[in-house]
Design goal:
The chain contains one helix and five strands. By secondary structure, it is α+β, with helices and mostly antiparallel strands. It starts with a strand and ends with a strand.
């Protein structure tokens, strides 16, 4: 079982970045719009920032508050 992370994503942001708030919670700002390819973009960005291969990051769910849940294997 891997490490679970929660990511709040802000789409169409003027600046891109990943901020950590501890307890495996992150705020991700992307200049991309939210569409059907958003999951792949988020995984790729998290992969680059955390230094983990993209195939080791699994999408779990998106909750009612629009938080994205992932597991880093």
């Amino acid at each position: 079982m891997g490490q679970k992370i929660l990511v709040k994503v802000v789409f169409n942001s003027s600046r891109e970045g990943l901020e950590s708030f501890g307890n495996n919670r992150y705020l991700l700002k992307l200049s991309y719009p939210e569409d059907e390819g958003a999951k792949a973009v988020i995984i790729a960005y998290i992969s680059r920032q955390m230094g983990v291969p993209a195939n080791k990051i699994a999408f779990i769910e998106q909750d009612v508050r629009k938080n994205w849940h992932f597991e880093v294997l």
